[in-house]
Specification:
This protein is mainly alpha-helical. The chain has four helices and no strands.
Length: 141
């Protein structure tokens, strides 16, 4: 019979939890986050770190692409770190791979494309605006 106290220990896993579940976790709860690659709480700081580095490394990127790339790299970092702590990417006897391992592969492929494009843009010579250059010329030039 319920006593009015919060559930703890074995009571959380008993048959009573089906009819009397534990109270919802407070905002910012870390218990449900496995790898953090989809956790707003964990993604924020990782995104910020990547954003700072990307601004230095790729000053030609606009804010939208910087944000997308920082998000991708943050997700890759968090998920890869979690996967590194596992015994491998296979989690079941039938050879099932962690879903997040597949996600990391997709995110990494997309990040590689974005980085290649950013590198190519950085190497490209800036376009000259001939009309602007001509208007700046003095009459005698």
């Amino acid at each position: 019979m319920p006593t009015g106290r919060p559930l703890a220990g074995a009571a959380l896993h008993s048959h009573l939890t089906k009819t009397c579940p534990a109270p919802p976790a407070p905002k910012g709860n870390q218990r449900a986050a496995k790898h953090g690659a989809k956790s707003l709480h964990k993604l924020g700081p990782a995104r910020e770190r990547h954003m700072k580095a990307l601004r230095v490394d790729y000053p030609n990127l606009d804010n939208r692409r910087l944000a997308l790339l920082a998000d991708r790299l943050a997700r890759i970092d968090l998920a890869s770190s979690w996967l590194d702590k596992q015994k491998g990417i296979v989690h079941s006897e039938d050879g099932g791979v962690f879903h997040i391992a597949k996600e990391v592969e997709k995110w990494a492929s997309r990040a590689e494309v974005l980085l290649e494009r950013a590198e190519a843009e950085g190497r490209r010579k800036p376009r000259r605006d001939l009309a602007l250059e001509m208007s700046a010329m003095e009459d005698g030039d």
